[in-house]
Amino acid sequence: QVQLVESGGGLVQPGGSLRLSCAASRSIFGINAMGWYRQAQGKQRELVAAITSGGSTNYADSVKGRFTISRDNAKNPVILQMNSLKPEDTAVYYCNVVTVLSDYWGQGTQVTVSS
Predict the structure, then answer these.
(1) Residue 115 to residue 101: CA distance in whole angstroms
(2) Count of C-beta atoms within a 10 Å radius of residue 3
(3) Both ends of the chain: CA-CA distance in Å?
């Protein structure tokens, strides 16, 4: 079983940047797609950004032009660069990796955007 651990969250002022990383307990192969989701307090979990094995990306309208998802390596499969952060970006951010056999989730990392 693969464990995913997110890092890079924290407290940042509006307009600031954070870079989220997703570390896997072992190399992951056969990846179909990877994504970052977030869940704000009292709201449902939503897709923030996704990237396929072919490199196609998809972003929530609310983050287009500000966030960038990218692939890294087999043990740190996906990165989320977040720029121009807004208070409404405050949420717990989760890494997701979908392979041909499994669907893996991390425990989440808190991102708080506040002055």
Answers:
(1) 43
(2) 12
(3) 40
Q: Distance between CA atoms of 102 and 115, rounded to whole angstroms?
A: 40
Strands (E), the chain: 4-7, 10-12, 18-24, 31-39, 46-52, 57-59, 67-71, 78-82, 91-99, 103-105, 109-113
* 88 DSSP assignment: G
Q: Which two tokens stand for residue 28?
A: 């992951």
Beta-sheet pairing, 109-113 with 10-12: parallel
Element (H, E) at 26: none
pLDDT for the residue numbered 70? 95
Report residue 31 as tokens: 């990846």
| Percent of residues, the chain, with pLDDT higher than 70 | 100
pLDDT band at 105; cut points 50, 70, 90:
very high
Q: What is the pLDDT of residues 64-81, one digit of tens each?
A: 999 999 988 777 789 999
Question: Hey, is 13 helix, strand or coil?
Answer: coil
